């Protein structure tokens, strides 16, 4: 009996010890869970921010800069900034864009009264070899903005832009016309962008096919087929596509831009999902450039102080369109959607519209035909439109019970 009691006591002690150990284990496991609440919330927040950002931010990007060289507009702001100073800022901006990604590309187009011209890249020149100033004595020296110790890609772009810009300015001074050719420059930029995007897409497709074929060959020789298929999908998704955008720098205060080509360029940019940014100098806003930036989800800024344009370029216009939804950027809510007359080329607040092609006219054409599609207007409608307003004489109503007044 005593032996049984001793065994029961021993068993009870063992159970108590086991219970204490379990309680200790439970306490030890519960304590890290309580103190790990903050790291868990940090991990959740990190995952949210990581998944919300588009993974295509590291894709190569093409930046096309269009500089409007209208002589009258730059003469009006000669006390604020010069073409030489604006060129310095644009070159710094382009070099910064190139430094973001080794695959980034730039293009520079000058738009003058004589027409538009590619300053970089120039199809007639080869940029594979860069000659020093000592070796190339006969070449016309560019302004002292390019250093020999500059990074090769920066130097290639800077020297090409400066040399071609000097020649372009001589052509601007020699011409007598003062009309803007900005619509042509925008068409050239869209054409070059489409060519580069098509070329990049073909290269990416070829690269993806080569990667997939190589990965499939390795997967077939590997015993684990599942890992090879996963690697193939990862390799196919790693191929990136090029993004593109256009920046227009203009100081033209006149509405001499052709409306129809500008609208066609806007529709093309929308189809290509291409943003058009506008840095407007001068004293007035440009209604057509406002429409271009607003319709393509670009940025329009009227810079009052052009001396600080490098700060504006490095902040507002430096952000890629793919990450602009996550950044608070300046917006332009007062967009002027005025149209232009197809006959006179001037802005129209109230005019006539062709019912066939929606051509806008400020005056009725003498030929009675639409200047755009050639549709013949109805003579009765034209007669009603040409007829001036008729003022009807208002008859005086005699009030009953009013006594007659004797003279």
Could you explain how this protein is built, in words?
The chain is an alpha/beta fold. It has two domains: 58-214 and 239-326, von Willebrand factor, type A domain (Rossmann fold); 338-386, no CATH class. The chain has eleven helices and ten strands. It has helices at 2-35, 37-52, 71-76, 83-100, 152-174, 182-221, 225-238, 259-272, 287-295, 309-315, 379-386; strands spanning 61-68, 105-112, 115-120, 243-250, 275-280, 300-302, 339-340, 347-348, 352-353, 360-361. The strands form three sheets. The protein has a six-stranded mixed β-sheet with strand order 3-2-1-4-5-6, with helices on both faces. A two-stranded antiparallel sheet has the order 7-8. A two-stranded antiparallel ribbon has the order 9-10. Strand 2 and strand 3 form a beta hairpin. Helix 4 packs antiparallel against helix 5. The longest helix is centred in the middle third of the chain and has 40 residues, at 182-221. It is globular and about 110 Å long. Mean pLDDT is 75; it is low at 1-5, 18-41, 44-56, 132-137 and 224-239.
Which descriptors apply to this entry?
single chain; 407 residues; alpha/beta; Rossmann fold; 2 domains; two-stranded antiparallel ribbon; 11 helices; 10 strands; globular; disordered N terminus; DNA damage; transcription regulation; zinc ion binding; nucleus
Describe the structure in brief:
This protein has 407 residues and is an alpha/beta fold. It has two domains: 58-214 and 239-326, von Willebrand factor, type A domain (Rossmann fold, 3-Layer(aba) Sandwich); 338-386, no CATH class. Helices cover 46% and strands 12% of the residues.
């Amino acid at each position: 009996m005593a032996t049984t009691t001793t065994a029961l006591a021993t068993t009870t002690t063992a159970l108590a010890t086991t219970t204490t150990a379990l309680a200790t284990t439970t306490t030890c496991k519960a304590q890290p869970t309580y103190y790990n609440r903050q790291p868990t919330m940090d991990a959740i927040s990190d995952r949210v921010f990581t998944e919300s950002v588009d993974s295509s931010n590291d894709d190569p990007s093409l930046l096309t800069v269009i500089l409007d060289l209208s002589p009258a507009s730059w003469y009006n702001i000669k006390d604020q900034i010069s073409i030489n100073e604006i060129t310095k800022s644009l070159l710094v901006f382009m070099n910064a864009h190139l430094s973001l990604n080794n695959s980034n590309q730039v293009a520079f187009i000058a738009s003058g009264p004589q027409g538009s011209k590619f300053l970089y890249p120039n199809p007639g020149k080869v940029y594979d070899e860069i000659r020093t100033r000592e070796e190339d004595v006969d070449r016309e020296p560019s302004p002292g903005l390019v250093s020999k110790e500059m990074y090769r890609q920066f130097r290639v772009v800077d020297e090409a832009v400066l040399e071609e810009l000097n020649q372009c300015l001589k052509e601007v001074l020699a011409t007598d016309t003062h009309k803007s050719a900005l619509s042509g420059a925008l068409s050239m930029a869209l054409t070059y962008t489409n060519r580069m995007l098509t070329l990049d897409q073909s290269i990416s497709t070829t690269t993806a096919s080569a990667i997939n074929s190589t990965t499939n060959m390795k997967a077939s020789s590997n015993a684990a087929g599942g890992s090879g298929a996963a690697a193939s999908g990862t390799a196919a998704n790693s191929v990136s596509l090029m993004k593109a955008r256009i920046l227009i720098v203009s100081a033209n205060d006149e509405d001499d831009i052709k409306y129809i080509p500008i609208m066609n360029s806007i529709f093309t940019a929308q189809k290509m999902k291409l943003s058009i940014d506008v840095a407007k100098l001068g004293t007035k806003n440009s209604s057509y450039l406002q429409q271009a930036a607003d319709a393509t989800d670009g940025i329009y800024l009227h810079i009052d102080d052009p001396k600080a344009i490098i700060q504006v370029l490095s902040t507002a216009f430096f952000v890629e369109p793919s990450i602009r939804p996550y950044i608070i950027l300046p917006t332009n809510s007062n967009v002027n959607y005025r149209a232009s007359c197809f006959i006179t080329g001037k802005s129209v607040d109230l005019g006539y519209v062709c019912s066939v092609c929606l051509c806008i006219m400020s005056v009725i054409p003498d030929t009675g035909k639409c200047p755009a599609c050639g549709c013949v207007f109805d003579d009765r409608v034209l007669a009603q439109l040409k007829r001036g307003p008729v003022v009807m004489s208002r008859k005086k109503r005699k009030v009953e019970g009013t006594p007659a007044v004797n003279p």
